[in-house]
Design brief:
It is a single chain. By secondary structure, the protein is of the alpha+beta class. The protein has a single domain, classed as Distorted Sandwich (Calcium-transporting ATPase, cytoplasmic transduction domain A). 23% of the residues lie in helices and 35% in strands. The chain is built from three helices and four strands; from the N terminus they run βαβββαα. Strands 1, 2, 3 and 4 form a four-stranded antiparallel β-sheet that branches. The protein is elongated and about 60 Å long. The chain starts with a strand and ends with a helix.
Length: 88
Amino acid sequence: MPADARLISADNFRVDESLLTGESELVEKRVRNVTSPNDNLLFSGTLIVKGHGIAEVTSISVKTEIGKIGTSLKSIGVEKTLLQKEVN
């Protein structure tokens, strides 16, 4: 997926979200009988592996979920290791 999107229609739709979640199991995405808030959401960086669907783009670039993760990683400072501290 090149962007975050909301699924409008789906037929036997499965997505690999391992990039975001680390889970190796495919996730079923559906429009009807949604039991979780993420059942009909698609995320940038995930891989559609089965089925057909139509989706409406909701976020692009740094406003996607993976973009937010990337932005937050920029603010992490590099700390010296214990060995570096002791040597100094």
